[in-house]
Amino acid sequence: MDLRSEDLPATLQAFDLMDNKEIFLAEQVVSNQAEIDIFTNRYAGKLIKAKTTLPVNSNSSYAKPAHRSRYSSTGVVMAIIVVLVIVLVIYGFSTGWIQEKLHMKV
Fold it and tell me: pTM, whole model, 2 decimals?
């Protein structure tokens, strides 16, 4: 398999054909003809597909995710704890348990 130098780097994928289905075996990014030859020799007799890969800039930043959660898990846990404490205080006052424990006159 030969690729033009302007097509490199490229991603090579090896597939095995069974019952008219492609079963994925391996994938490798190659940047020269020697790496291509090693990959094709390793997976000789298998279906090999190639696709071009965009070069990675070292100074480029990652794109922000399309959707980001509005609430952190810590914030949600803290909110649940606060609500639970408020409910317990209301229950304690309504049953008189807090007044009894703190020796408050009713």
Answer: 0.48
